[in-house]
């Protein structure tokens, strides 16, 4: 039977803290030994997006849809990396949420955004 819920119950809200903790643990395991190569990183962003979606889904309450955005870029040894990543969408601040994480090694930087949108 279909049940309509306009917003999640308080104990069923998306936990940004738990998702961020998972990302902080996950990113170094996948990127610590990766050297930036444009073609390799293009396919890596796709794989990371899928893996992160499945990882975060394990701690995501019912009725939430996840949108994962992964950005990987070159970090030159001679230069400082300055990047601004922004995202904008229309959502309900009482039920929807997002978290982000970043990782940097000798040759690359990675920024991950995870949006959790409550689906009625």
Automatic annotation (TrEMBL):
Pfam families: Tctex-1. One of its GO terms (molecular function) is dynein intermediate chain binding. One of its GO terms (cellular component) is cytoplasm. One of its GO terms (biological process) is microtubule-based movement. Belongs to the dynein light chain Tctex-type family. This is Tctex1 domain containing 1.
């Amino acid at each position: 039977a279909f049940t309509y819920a306009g917003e999640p119950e308080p104990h069923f809200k998306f936990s940004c803290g738990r998702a961020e903790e998972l990302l902080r643990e996950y990113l170094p395991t996948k990127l610590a030994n990766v050297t930036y190569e444009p073609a390799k990183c293009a396919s890596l962003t796709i794989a990371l997006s899928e893996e992160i979606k499945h990882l975060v889904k394990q701690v995501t309450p019912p009725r939430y849809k996840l949108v994962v955005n992964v950005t990987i870029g070159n970090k030159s040894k001679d230069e400082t990396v300055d990047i601004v990543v922004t995202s904008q969408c229309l959502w309900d601040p009482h039920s929807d949420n997002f978290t982000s994480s970043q990782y940097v090694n000798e040759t690359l930087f990675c920024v991950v955004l995870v949006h959790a949108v409550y689906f009625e």
